[in-house]
Each structure stands twice: as C-alpha cells, then as structure tokens.
Amino acid sequence: xxxxxxxxxxxxxxxxxxxxxxxxxxxxxxxxxxxxxxxxxxxxxxxxxxxxxxxxxxxxxxxxxxxxxxxxxxxxxxxxxxxxxxxxxxxxxxxxxxxxxxxxxxxxxxxxxxxxxxxxxxxxxxxxxxxxxxxxxxxxxxxxxxxxxxxxxxxxxxxxxxxxxxxxxxxxxxxxxxxxxxxxxxxxxxxxxxxxxxxxxxxxxxxxxxxxxxxxxxxxxxxxxxxxxxxxxxxxxxxxxxxxxxxxxxxxxxxxxxxxxxxxxxxxxxxxxxxxxxxxxxxxxx
Length: 286
Hints:
Helix content is 20%, strand content 28%. Residues 1-26 and 259-286 have low confidence and may be disordered. The protein has 6 helices and 16 strands. The strands form 5 sheets. It has a 5-stranded mixed beta sheet with strand order 3-1-14-9-10. The chain is an alpha+beta fold.
C-alpha cells in the first residue's frame, strides 16, 4: 500500500503540535551545543556528521554552535588544533586531523581527547583519554533524568605530560600520547592476555591521566567511573571549559543556562535551531 502524502494542513498541525509540546520535541531530537572556551580557534570534528555541519568546521574562541541530533544517533566528537584549510575544505591540522578534510568522515588521528555518545532510550556518554589528550573537554547533560553527571577532562594534561608521551611543536607540548600509542605493548593496549577487565589493570601512565581527570576514561576497561547514563537530555560539549562562563543550550523552546547568560546566543541561532528541530521531528513522524 502506498504511503499517504501529508497535506499542508497535516504539516501545519504537526508543526503546531511540536511547538506546543516540549515532551514531543525532546522525544525525537537532542540539542547539542558545542562551545569553544579556548583562547584560540579550534576545529570540532564529529562522526557521523550529517547533523553536525557536515562533520567539521572552524569555531573561534568563545563561540558556540547549536546542532540537533536524531534519537538513535551514536558518534564521536573531538577537537582539532592549528588547522589550515583552503576554500575547498582541504588542508591539515597539528592535532586531531582526519586526513586532509575539513569535514570528517573517519576517526581522528591520535592523540586526541574524545567524547563518545549514544542516544538510545538510556543514553550513554563519556570522555576518553584512551587515545591520548590534545584539548581539555567536557560533556554536560542538561534537563535530563538519571545520573547525568558531567564527564570530561577540564585540566590541561599537556602541562604535566610525561616527556616520553609528549608531542611537541615549536618547543611546546601540543598533545600527550597514550602509553599504548608510544610503547605498543599488550599490557598498555589491553590486548592478548590483558584483553579483558580481569587482567587489564591501571598502569603508571593511566593512573596519571586518571588523577588529573577523574571523570574520563584513562584505559580501555575504566568503565565504572568513566561512563555515564542519562535520559532525555540535551548536551553541552565544551572545549577548555571555564568555571565562570555560563553553560547554555536551547531546550523546550527556551534558553537554559547554568548562570546569567544574556546575549549568549544570537536570535538567528535560536531560530535556526527551532527550525531544525521542527524539520527533524516531522521527518521522523511522517
């Protein structure tokens, strides 16, 4: 049987219904706010990136961008540093690059701080240092139910990175590699006889990462204190999070902040977000 084509009246009715019900809106989309609190431009990378600006873009210092991800989305978000791209989107980055493309379709090169999220009925999220560290990063759920703790590494591991793990450029430490990446042993990489939770234990290096960043993954089986769950949340992904800067996102037709944040978003961003939510919900409901 052919699927009936929605009429303009149906679309109008559904649009009004979505706008009038925050519950319906939150059931079919999640709002992601990606914020750069670093003192320099970074280039967020997202895979899969269809709902996130194609998978990558430049984000200036103190800027934010808002995206909507469909229910069921599962992916990775990380930051790239010191990038240079031409008008065709071809170029390179000092850390976190995904080949030579501005818009990523594959994982980034190590070392890079990595956020992982899965939007199932029980949502899972974490920040991983298993592949090393290149930027402070946090994941903050808002307006969700459950544990909903902040995950991440807000300290800068580059400042205290062991020399044997350090990546340097121009005389400065620009990233901190993992012990697996450097030494490539079964013990550090949790493989072979160390390929399970019973035998893969914290090492000297993973403990240093864990002490600096207690709510991040420090090695492959660091599950109990590193993976978090929530339901019905929106997510704020912040690079170089500042304790004093308000953390804001757009939720249930209103701006929600952790403090006073007048002017944090421009009206066009809110309007664009609202339109994206409507389009996304309509595509799921029709």
